[in-house]
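Hey, can you fold this one?
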Amino acid sequence: MSPRSTRASSPHAHEEARAVARAAWERLRTARRALERAQDAAVAAEADWRDARDRLRALERVLTAASAANHQAKTEGPHAYAD
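Sure. Predicted structure:
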């Protein structure tokens, strides 16, 4: 190839490389935004999970207390109030 034809194709190659770089940059920006959305969703999911866990623990305490009260009522029975 002669130097003249190399110089003639160089601007085209440069523009093509710039277009590829721009497309790659846009893909990177899109991926970064998707990652940020995924991170936000993960934080929200973790908060929801913690809230559900706390509610289950509270429910477990209520059920345990109710079970203990039920057991106490059964063991004491009606005779406990016969005095």
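Residues 3-76 form the longest helix (74 residues). Let me know if you want another pass with a different chain boundary.
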